[in-house]
Specification:
With 377 residues, this protein is of the alpha/beta class. It has 13 helices and 19 strands. It has a 7-stranded mixed β-sheet with strand order 6-5-14-15-16-13-17. Bound molecules: flavin-adenine dinucleotide. The site of flavin-adenine dinucleotide has 34 residues, from α1, β3, β13, α9 and α10.
Length: 377
């Protein structure tokens, strides 16, 4: 059986690797002419690293990234108000959370593909049902017959909009700047992610390699007129804290990336006959838990296990049933977290920070445990 994967993002590439390892014949269609990474980092949380361990990629990813053993929420002066220590999960699952350049991650994943046929410059336009399955129509004029399709074509998925057209995108009214500073953090910050919460804004940073610190900054905007531009990031965070300011100034401006934060409401519509959605195409989440790509990676592994054990349609149903609860919980929690993190009323900000300080560690440990535990197929 040939499986056609639409989209060579983190989810699509990981799915291709997992299915190739099981002996499936794979074709992957990507709209971009080249695999072009966003100039940003990413944290591969413990759950994603467990998957990469199973796929034989733990060593190469660990060597190319930087381990993160704590996640800290701070106020805008970088004074800690809440902390999650990850060492117990490192010991339990024998993997660490790894912060890595997105470019390195995509390159490593791409290089694992040995037999998969990769078609770049193939932007899917529509999927039309026919007797043999579906006809894939591409913008370059090509038409390709397919029996089995995995839609890993992201938030604006053409596979999803063809199959389940009524799934409006939900905007969070937040802008996110991302960059990589040529900088080394002091030793005590090297193995942790710090995220500073202010009023209507956040700034996170983490070392991803020698002399490379990945940072992201989010700000609320009220309406389209209030949206800021790429070069306004420096002004926005100039007076917040010198560490933050140093990171922004140590970043080549032309490499700063600006994105609007959005998702769509959780839906059970992940598959139909011989077509299945994964990753952002099925359950895009706002990035507030840093779990979007990790959930796509979990999907890739669970779906490949299901396809290895069941007939196609049964595999898609089993996959959806195994993954739905956690993926939806990430979408919902991320959305709420984004609202709480961007409170504007100073009284509510103080109250929020006090509550965070008082939250028992056992609660965040339990939440992390639920997040890191993979489903059993
Ligand atoms: C600001 C920000 C920060 C984030 N930080 C993190 C983090 O730290 N950790 C984390 O786990 N997640 C993070 N995420 C989320 C993460 O980036 C996504 O969840 C993840 O990339 C989803 O992977 P995917 O493969 O499903 O989709 P995508 O990465 O969107 O890949 C989709 C692929 O499909 C291709 N494609 C799209 N349409 C077509 C078409 N019509 N035809 C052919 N190809 C097509 C695209 O070119 C792309 O290559 C962040 C997201 C944002 C916006």
């Amino acid at each position: 059986m040939t499986i056609d994967i639409i989209g060579a993002g983190i989810g699509g590439l990981t799915t291709a690797i997992a299915l190739e390892q099981k002996g499936f014949k794979i074709r992957i269609f990507e709209q971009a002419e080249k695999i072009k990474p966003v100039g940003a980092g990413i944290i591969l949380a413990n759950n994603a690293m467990q998957v990469f361990d199973k796929l034989g990629l733990k060593k190469i990813l660990t060597e190319n990234g930087n381990p993160v053993s704590a996640i800290k929420i701070t106020n805008s002066n970088l004074e800690v108000i809440s902390e999650i220590n990850l060492t117990q999960f490192e010991q339990k699952y024998n993997v660490k959370n790894i912060a890595i350049h997105r470019g390195s991650l995509q390159q490593i994943l791409f290089e694992q593909l040995k037999k998969t046929e990769v078609y770049l410059g193939h932007k899917l336009n529509k999927v039309v049902k026919n007797e043999g399955g579906h006809m894939l129509h591409f913008e370059n004029g090509k038409k390709i017959q397919s029996t089995t399709i995995i839609g890993s074509d992201g938030l604006h998925s053409k596979v999803r909009t063809n199959l389940f057209p009524h799934q409006p995108i939900r905007f969070a009214n937040q802008l996110c700047w991302r960059g990589i500073a040529n900088h080394n953090l002091p030793t005590e910050l090297k193995n942790e992610l710090n995220e500073a919460w202010g009023k209507n804004e956040r700034f996170g940073f983490v070392q991803i390699a020698e002399n490379k610190v990945y940072w992201y900054a989010l700000k609320t905007y009220k309406n389209a007129q209030h949206k800021q531009k790429i070069n306004e990031i420096e002004k926005s965070f100039a007076n917040v804290n010198s560490t933050i300011n140093n990171l922004i100034t140590a970043t080549p401006k032309e490499q700063i990336n600006l994105a609007e934060i959005s998702d769509f409401k959780p839906t059970k519509n992940w598959y139909q006959e011989n077509v299945c959605l994964i990753g952002d195409a099925a359950h895009a989440a706002t990035p507030n838990m840093g779990q979007g790509a990790c959930q796509a990676i979990e999907d890739a592994y669970i779906l490949s296990e299901c396809l290895g054990k069941h007939k196609t349609n049964e595999a898609f149903e089993t996959f959806r049933n195994l993954r739905l609860k956690k993926a939806h919980s990430v979408v919902k929690t991320s959305w709420t977290l984004g609202k709480v993190a961007h409170l504007s009323n100073p009284v509510l900000v103080a109250l929020r920070n006090q509550m965070l300080r008082m939250t028992p560690k056992s609660i965040s440990t339990k939440q992390s445990q639920q997040l890191f535990q993979l489903a059993q197929v």
